[in-house]
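From the methods appendix. Each design record in this collection lists the tokenized structure first, followed by the designed amino acid sequence. Records were kept in a plain field format so they could be parsed without special tools. The example shown here is representative of the layout used throughout.

RECORD:
FOLD TOKENS (602 positions):
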């Protein structure tokens, strides 16, 4: 490493002057001494530092009137600048030579510079130099820092040559210069790469851009600035790459945002009450049926569900489930089984519309109704009217029988007394019951028992003839009757017992089946109908007042039996009587009928 001073300590060349005007001043790297290289021009000591690569800060537009130049001892932004204790000069950060100075009034890339924007940032501002800015007024005084602020006190020696980085404004003194041969951050410098590039040489030995070309100044390494064409060509590619990166990310973000929104929208908090026990449930179900399935709740036909299964769910909704319970109910004597969703007997009675006030219950009203059911007997309060002893009494009762209601009404039954309805029947609401006061006696009576008649066929008798072979005789029995008087009125006697005294005798009758002869010789041509009409009026069972003669032709019993008849003539049929009369006429003529016999000959 040579002892020549660092390139950035040289004053900025004037237009038309070479980049290296003469032999560099001596550099004394005494330990602890601040570095203040001698400048050929006093203004060159306050030259702007080279801009850092990558900085996008542009030169401020030139104001109409430049402000006063900061005095000595002020640095960048008006801060105090460090002062060299040996020379008394105010220290600035030496900017490397950036090539020939662009023409006055030109801006970046040779474009016209804006109006004077004020003083140029002082040395050590920490930004790389851009194209030459127009004259912004007097240079800030030595000892000022960034933006004209006072530079801090002496912070120690400036970084040695080859460090590759300018000292940050306001940073404390880092100590003596690093040893010769060290590079950036104290690392070993590469071997000597040859002579220092001459004036006008650019990066890698290429010609530097001409003066006033508007090219951007490079870092102290002396490289040529990148062309605007290359930057313009790279811009669309970078834009496309940016879109390729941004679009998938935006899609993922949109998808996640949409999914999160749908997730948040589907999540809801509902209040679920099962058999009176409420709880809050967070669910993604869209309707009541899906919620019940998610919670494992089954709802049957006897259960209560509100709202319905197909109802949609929103945040804050309330769902009620009540399970049905079988109730084996005996209500006022009528038995039936019903279903209820009430959890107590009192609630079940209200659901069924049963009036429980004043009613009899087989279980307390506050008793719970289990899921497997309950047997319950209920007798409601009813109004019953009793008529007894000429008075009327109406009571309200929940009695199970009429007899129990009578006792509650204070009515007493004696001996044979009873009621108009069975005493063990259930009293109905609005029913009227009459009390019967009964008095009575018993009476025993003798009664005949009629005999039976038995008819027997007899072939010896002509058809139509009946003969009583055995006469019947009635029997006798003793019967006991009850004679009652109900509320002063005597009722019909009622048989309560009987006893047989004598058995009846059956009567036996012979019935003839023999066929009568068709005619009797010598008597068929006579007028027997006229004779019968004259003797008996044509009646087969006619008898005379004395009872001696009977039948159509008024036979006596002896004559009748002599002619072959049986029994009495008036008991025989008319055809047989005519047959016997003809036989008598053949034997004796018309003599047996002295008064009517002449009618046979008409």
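DESIGN:
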């Amino acid at each position: 490493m040579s002892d020549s001073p660092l390139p950035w300590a040289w004053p900025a060349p004037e237009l038309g002057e070479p980049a290296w005007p003469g032999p560099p001043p001596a550099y004394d790297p005494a330990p602890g001494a601040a570095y203040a290289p001698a400048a050929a021009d006093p203004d060159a000591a306050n030259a702007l530092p080279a801009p850092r690569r990558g900085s996008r800060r542009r030169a401020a537009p030139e104001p109409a009137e430049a402000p006063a130049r900061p005095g000595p001892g002020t640095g960048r932004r008006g801060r105090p600048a460090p002062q060299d204790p040996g020379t008394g000069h105010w220290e600035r950060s030496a900017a490397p030579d950036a090539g020939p100075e662009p023409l006055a009034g030109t801006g970046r890339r040779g474009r016209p510079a804006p109006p004077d924007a004020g003083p140029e940032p002082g040395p050590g501002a920490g930004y790389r130099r851009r194209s030459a800015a127009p004259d912004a007024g007097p240079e800030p005084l030595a000892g000022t820092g960034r933006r004209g602020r006072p530079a801090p006190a002496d912070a120690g020696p400036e970084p040695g040559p080859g460090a590759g980085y300018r000292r940050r404004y306001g940073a404390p003194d880092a100590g003596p210069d690093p040893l010769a041969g060290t590079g950036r951050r104290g690392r070993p410098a590469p071997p000597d790469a040859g002579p220092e590039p001459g004036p006008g040489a650019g990066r890698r030995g290429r010609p530097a851009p001409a003066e006033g070309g508007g090219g951007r100044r490079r870092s102290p390494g002396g490289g040529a600035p990148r062309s605007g064409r290359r930057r313009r060509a790279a811009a669309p590619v970078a834009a496309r790459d940016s879109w390729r990166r941004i679009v998938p990310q935006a899609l993922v973000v949109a998808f996640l945002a949409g999914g999160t929104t749908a997730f948040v929208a589907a999540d809801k908090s509902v209040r679920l009450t099962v058999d009176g026990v409420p709880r809050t449930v967070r669910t993604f179900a869209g309707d009541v049926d899906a919620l019940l399935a998610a919670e494992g709740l089954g709802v049957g036909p006897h259960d209560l569900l509100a709202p319905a299964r197909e109802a949609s769910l929103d945040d804050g909704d309330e769902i009620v489930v009540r399970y049905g319970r079988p109730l084996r109910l005996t209500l006022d004597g009528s038995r039936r089984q019903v279903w209820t969703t009430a959890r107590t007997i009192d609630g079940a009675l209200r659901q069924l519309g049963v009036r429980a006030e004043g009613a009899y219950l087989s279980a307390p009203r506050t008793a719970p109704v289990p899921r497997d059911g309950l047997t319950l007997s209920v007798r409601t309060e009813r109004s019953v009217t009793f008529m007894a002893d000429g008075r009327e009494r109406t009571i309200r009762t929940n009695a199970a029988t009429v007899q129990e209601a009578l006792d509650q009404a204070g009515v007493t039954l004696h001996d044979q007394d009873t009621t108009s309805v069975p005493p063990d029947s259930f009293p109905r609401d609005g029913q009227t019951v009459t009390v019967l006061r009964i008095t009575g006696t018993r009476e025993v009576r003798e009664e005949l028992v009629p005999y039976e008649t038995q008819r027997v066929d007899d072939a010896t008798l002509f058809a139509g003839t009946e003969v009583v072979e055995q006469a019947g005789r009635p029997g006798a029995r003793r019967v006991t009757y009850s004679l009652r008087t109900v509320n002063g009125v005597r009722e019909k006697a009622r048989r309560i017992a009987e006893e047989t005294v004598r058995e009846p005798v059956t009567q036996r009758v012979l019935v003839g089946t023999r066929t009568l002869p068709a005619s009797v010789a010598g008597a068929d041509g006579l007028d027997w109908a006229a004779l019968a009409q004259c003797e008996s009026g044509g009646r087969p069972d006619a008898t005379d007042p004395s009872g001696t003669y009977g039948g159509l032709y008024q036979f006596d019993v002896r004559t009748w039996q002599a002619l072959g008849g049986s029994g009495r003539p008036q008991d025989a049929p008319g055809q047989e009587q005519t047959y016997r009369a003809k036989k008598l006429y053949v034997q004796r003529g018309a003599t047996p009928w002295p008064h009517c016999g002449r009618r046979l000959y008409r």
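APPENDIX NOTE: The first strand starts at residue 75 and ends at 79.
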